[in-house]
Amino acid sequence: MADQMGRIERSREIARRRSRKVKVKKLRARFAVAKNDADKAALVEKLQRVSPFATFE
Questions:
Q1: Phi-psi bin for 12: left (phi > 0), alpha (psi -120 to 50), beta?
Q2: Can you give the chain as a three-state secondary structure string?
Q3: For residue 41, which phi and psi values (nearest 5 degrees)?
Q4: Residue 1, pLDDT above cutoff 60
Q5: For residues 7 and 15, is the Cβ–Cβ distance under 8 A?
């Protein structure tokens, strides 16, 4: 977080969006290879925490 001290709000917002996009991409990849429903349910739950309106479609 030390590198964000000098950032203005807009650049922090862009950085948050960028990191959220990366997280959602990783979760979608993990969902695609998930074997059982329990793993898929856990990934759906995590995706909802990261990005409430995102889906796995």
A1: alpha
A2: CHHHCCCCHHHHHHHHHHHHHHHHHHHHHHHHHCCCHHHHHHHHHHHHHHCCCCCCC
A3: -65, -40
A4: no
A5: yes
* Contact (CB, 8 A) for 4 and 12: yes
**Residue listed under structure tokens 């479609």:** 57
- Which of 2-11, 12-21, 26-35, 45-54 bottoms out in mean pLDDT, i.e. has the lowest? 2-11
The 10s digit of each residue's pLDDT in 19-47 is 999 999 999 999 999 999 999 999 999 99
Q: Which two tokens stand for residue 36?
A: 């059982």
Mean pLDDT of 4-31: 91
Asked if pLDDT for residue 15 goes beyond 90, the answer is yes
